[in-house]
Give the backbone structure.
Amino acid sequence: LRQRVTRFQKRSSRPARTLDWALRRLDRHAEAAEVLEAAIALHPDDGDLLLYAAEVVSGTSHADMEQARQYCQ
């Protein structure tokens, strides 16, 4: 999945979302957050990505609602 992100990250945020999802399922939340932040840096105007990020952040047991609000603005 990491190779897929590297190969296609400039075209789409979807590979990063897939990798983020997989890492979170493995309880590797710090790595997942890095992947998501990097994708947002490359695609700051991608509404689907920002919505996904807000849902991920607000849906965790360590929810950071302020960060989720920033993604939605």
Remarks:
- The chain is about 75% helix and 0% strand.
- The CA atoms of residues 13 and 48 lie 9 Å apart.
- The radius of gyration is 11 Å.
